Amino acid sequence: MLALMVLASFGLASCGDDDDDKKTGQEEVNYADAKLLKIETKFTAGENFFGPLVNEVNYEYNADGYVSSSSDLSSENNLYDTFDYSKLKSENKIVVTHKNESGSGLYDDESICTYYLENGRVTKIVENENEVLLKYNGKNQLTDVVYREDEYAKLTWENDFITKYEIISGSYKDEGFECEITYSNIPVGQFGGDLVASAVKCYGSDGIGLNGMFGATPKYYPKKEVIRDYGEGLIATREFSFDSLTKLLTSVKVTETKTNGEAKTQTSELTLTWDVPSKK
Asked: What is the mean pLDDT of the chain?
C-alpha cells in the first residue's frame, strides 16, 4: 500500500491583464484542479524481492471530478476498482467493485466493498461478511480503524498532524506494522486525505478514489516516511520529491530492507503523471 497523496492547493497568481496574456501567447494553467492520471513504479537497484519489476496504476474521473475507476497493472496480476457514487446523496454510501485478474487465471476473483458515510465521512466498510469500523475524535480526525476485535489500525495525531500510524494484531504480536512520518512545508490542499486513507485501505479499494472522505487531513505533505512491517520483516523508507513550480508530487524514492534472515535491500521509484487543466 502506498501512502501517496494528491496535491491540489497551489496556483500561480496572474501577473498581467488579458491583453498581456494575448501578447505572450501563454495559457494560464490551474494547478489547483490537477488530477492524478498515473503512478508508475520501477525497480531500480539491489535485489528484487518485493513486488514486480514494473507496476502501473491508472486513474479515470467522472464529470463530478471523482475517481470513477482505477487499474493496478503489473506482470504478476491486475487489479481493477470501479467506483459507483449513484447512492452517495440518497443513501450516504459508495459501492466499489474490486476485480483481481491473475496471470494464470487461477486466482481471479471479484468482490464488492460498500463504504457508509455519516456527516461526509466514512464510518463503516462492508465486504461480504467482513465489517470494518472507523472512529474519529472530537476534531474530526480518524484515530482507529477496527478490522476485528484483536486487529486494528491506530493513528497518532500531534498538533493536527499524523506522526505515526500502526496496525496492531493481538493474535500475532510479531505481525504488527507502524509508520512514522515527518513533514515538508508544502500544503497538500483538498486531496490531502490520501495520507489518512492509506491507513484505511483494505480489500483492494484505492484510497485516492475516496479522497476527502475520512475526516480531517494534515496540512502539509510528508517529507519522509519510515515503515516497519514486522510480519514481513521489512523496513521501508519513502522520500518525497516535488515540482519546484507547481508543487505537485512528482516522485517517491522507496528503499526496502529485509531484516529477517539474510539482509537484502532493494530500491524503487514511483513517478506521477498529472493532468493540469487550463483556467477558464
From this structure: 78
